[in-house]
Amino acid sequence: MEDETNAKVFFPTSRQFVLEHMVNVLRELHHREMGPVIVFSFEMEMCTDLLRALVERLEAAEAAYRTTDEFASYAATIARNAAAAEAQRRQRLSTMKQKKLTKDEDGNVTRNERDMDMAEDAAGAGGGGEGIALIEGETVVPEVLPEFTFVVPNRAIDVEVVQRALQDCEEGGGGDNLLGRAIRRGLGLHHAGLKGKVRRQMEVLFRGRHCGVIFATETLALGVHSPCRAVVLAGDHVRLNTTQFRQMMGRAGRRGLDFLGHLVFLGISMKKITRLMTSGETIIKGNVQVDALTQLRVLQLHDYLQHRGRDAKQSDIIRRLLSLHNPDWESHITSMV
């Protein structure tokens, strides 16, 4: 029994630890209304595994909930709402039919067929009734219960856009339709292994707040407009340096919407976290390869400006050439000056 218990305890910086505790981290962020969330990982396979694990956990939890008495009571309430709505629709249609009855020249009651068709259409659409209020509440059990999704409330995206994204992602999402299942639960995936059309659809869904969580590599942190409220760094990696960390961390906090962003480290040692948080910015140095042809062209430009009498421009070029600290250039330019 002791061996079985120890077998389920993973090292905090291991891959299994991240997979096991990711759902708890995301649930806590969702409960605190810290979404949308970007989960960064440097491995495409890890992003896919995290998405698959979360989708399967949500599907299993929903399947278990649908077998409970609480869901049975909820489904019964939905059925009663649907029956009441249908009864009101029929009553509305009957009332409208009575209003459309007319009399001909002989005094016989007739019906205007055109008005009857319009009445049936209006009743079927749920509008046009007078003095009859619709019952508030759901009439159909959702295909995916909202309690088992990460869809952001008050999303700013049309249903047609979501359906189009579903179609594109199902075509390029693999045999298990992982992307389609994920989108229905407000989850997304973004890495270089996906088709460009699929990545663009994921970006649209994330910016439109349909996908409350997206698993991505560092590609989403570079040059893609994808602001969020919280960032999760899932696992350590050799490429996780100060520059990448600051670039990913900068995604947290939406301009004009959030006063601050939130950052969560998962599966990263405290020593690495301290180094990332306290390290200074990386100094970027150029590594320009100066060949003989480049030197010749620069010297020709220098001689041209000298003969044209452009002293100000000439001195500026000389200053820039000397700043490159090339020994060959320094000796030649100094001799000319």
TrEMBL record:
Entry GO MF terms: helicase activity; hydrolase activity
Region (Disordered), start-end ranges: 89-114
Helicase C-terminal domain ranges (all copies): 177-256
Nucleotide-binding recorded as keyword: yes
CC terms in the record's Gene Ontology section: cytoplasm
Alphabetical UniProt keywords: ATP-binding, Helicase, Hydrolase, Nucleotide-binding
Biased composition (Basic and acidic residues): 101-114
Superkingdom assignment: Eukaryota
Pfam families referenced in this protein's UniProt entry, alphabetically: Helicase_C
Name of the protein this chain belongs to: Putative helicase C694.02
Organism, scientific name: Lygus hesperus
Lineage of producing organism: Eukaryota, Metazoa, Ecdysozoa, Arthropoda, Hexapoda
Gene: SPAC694.02
